Task: inverse folding
């Protein structure tokens, strides 16, 4: 007698909205965020993780099927599950995000006109705040 190996699937926590219009809006936004996340894999300027997490949040409110697919995805599933379960981010992702924000901010300081330097300082404050927020989250 052979035993069949059963795959483990994570059951997503969905909170579908009752209005069809709102569900369709979240469904479309989820696909937009997912595509932006995929573009973020190819372009170093765009982040991937925030868009994938936004897609998961939108799909949790609109489509059990897409949310289930994303949460059990080969590459993105673990990150989404860690975020939904514990609001946790991998340590390497925290460092990578911080390094990329630092490089982007430094490049902005060197490339922005002198009369617009306040924009660079504003971005530096925002990026520092994001880095502090990231490192306060638990490690996945």
Result:
């Amino acid at each position: 007698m052979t035993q069949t190996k059963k795959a483990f699937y994570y059951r997503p926590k969905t909170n579908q909205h009752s209005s069809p219009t709102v569900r369709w809006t979240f469904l479309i936004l989820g696909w937009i965020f997912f595509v932006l996340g995929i573009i973020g894999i190819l372009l170093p300027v765009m982040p991937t993780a925030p868009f994938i997490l936004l897609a998961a949040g939108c799909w949790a409110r609109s489509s059990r099927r897409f949310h289930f697919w994303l949460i059990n995805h080969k590459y993105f599933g673990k990150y989404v599950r860690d975020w939904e379960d514990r609001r946790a981010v991998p340590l390497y992702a925290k460092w990578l995000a911080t390094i990329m924000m630092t490089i982007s901010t430094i490049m902005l300081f060197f490339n922005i006109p002198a009369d617009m330097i306040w924009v660079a300082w504003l971005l530096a404050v925002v990026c520092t705040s994001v880095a502090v927020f990231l490192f306060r989250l638990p490690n996945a």
In short: The chain has six helices and no strands. The chain has two domains: 20-86, 91-136. Helices lie at 20-42, 49-60, 64-71, 77-86, 91-111, 117-136. Residues 5 and 79 are 25 Å apart (CA to CA).
